[in-house]
Design goal:
Elements: H1 16-20, H2 23-37, H3 41-54
Length: about 70
Amino acid sequence: MSRDGRRGDRGGAPSEGEAERSPDAAAARAMLEERLARCSPAEAAAFWKAVRRCYAGAVEPEKGRA
């Protein structure tokens, strides 16, 4: 966000970096990582396959991270 409170030409939407730093995003990421930790490797792979299908260019986290 700029010093004057505007978010540039994004129409008021936060940048990706701003969104990542929000408390809600941190809580959701922790919940996702906790749930993925309980999945089998096949279930986690299926999840990431679905993410890639829905969000072109989505990147899987490094091994051991999720």
